[in-house]
From TrEMBL:
Alphabetized UniProt keyword annotations: Signal
Domain of life: Bacteria
Location of the DUF4397 domain: 36-149
Residues making up the signal peptide according to the UniProt record: 1-22
Name used for this protein in its record: DUF4397 domain-containing protein
Keyword Heme in annotation: no
Keyword Signal: yes
Amino acid sequence: MVYKVLKSVMFCSFLSIVVILGACTENDDSGSSRGELRFLNVIADEPRVDFSLDEDLITSSVSFLEATQYYRVDAMRYDFVVNQAGTFSELLRDSNTIGKDKRYTFIACGPSDDTGSIFMLDNNVDSTDDRANLRFVNAVTSRLKVDAYVIPEKGPIPTVAAQSDIGSKGVTEYINGFPGNYRLEFRNSLNDNLVARSEWVNIKNGQVLSVILAGGEEGYSVAVIVENE
């Protein structure tokens, strides 16, 4: 389910956010050795892609910044294959292992001529009812390193980054904080220039989230995905 979508525009003039709620899991629960997997397309110049495991198509025509629902799949090693939508034109093939009773997000990122991937174990933190947990992901395949800031709607603007020097395809540890309205911001680690900023995001008690920087030189976007709903 897409919570909000704002169009990404040219480099840093105006910036965008997608907040994606964790969708219902598809497929039955038969069999005990299974895990859960969803896909996220942040290939900036591919408006739609198909995702397969080995040679089996799992989901098709996934648009840019779209996260799919979670799928229950057998716990084993797969070739993760990304194709241009509706074709056999392969953009990426990468091997990863699904663990029993684990939940993952597979991110296809970068431009189509240099497609990369990030394979994340989701909800890998002890959540509490009075706090939220979030981590930051740099899904840009260039050499851009970024610092991440969490800016409260009320209160002083932080002068110290929540996470620093996040390199290409880097995934940080979780941090925790109180629920509320926040802006989530990425800045260039070298010169502190703004790269991308979300609008106000209402972070709730007990949520576990990933904040993802996506795009390229023609424009950057922020996607926020909830891992435990």
